[in-house]
Amino acid sequence: MLIAFDLDDTLYKEKEFVASGCEAVARRAAATGKITLGEALAILHDAAITAEGFDRLAEAAGGLTIADLLDAYRHHTPVLSLPGESEKVLDELRRRGHTLALVTDGRAATQRGKINALGLNRYFSPQNIIISGETGADKNHPLPFLLAAERNPAETERVYVGDNPAKDFRHPNLLGWRTIRLNDVGGVNVHRQDIEVAPEFRASETIDSLGELLDII
User: Fold this and answer.
1) Statement: residue 159 has pLDDT above 90
2) Do strands 158-162 and 129-131 pair parallel, antiparallel, or not at all (unpaired)?
3) Residue 109's CB: how many other CB atoms inside 10 A?
4) What is the pTM of this model?
């Protein structure tokens, strides 16, 4: 069986990357000498949305552009840790002989940085790490899922585990995959799940914890 996973807010909480990125941005601003690290962090934390914080920080630091801050955010080496539950699930699925894949949207450098920080290369072979920034198509297109299937022709049973009903499940549903949504029980995901979507966008099953996969697969 081919079991493919989303990355952000599925295998770890994306808020951890946001926090790590904001720390990197604040350090970049503080390096100008025109603002302290504490002041920079306060500006970012007090902003209603991240974009507003970047605007205010660029102005306070002086000499920095939004592009400078975005570059620091997207290309920093993130400080992340793979949750124990995710590690347990991936270890057990691999022990059972399943083929594991990662299908994620985002810029190549950013997503590779997350993958390296989380140590996910030990679970997913290079050919089974599919990043939209490297393939040219995100999950609003069938290509990432077609690639996962084509690279694993012996696996005729296919599963996708994700969290975002806006884009994670439509194409695997249309391709005949089994789809499983990890519920945002704590309400902390970057992308909300309580949105209205057409039936084809909905996962066929839902779970409240990643560990439940071991009981239903």
Assistant:
1) yes
2) unpaired
3) 12
4) 0.91
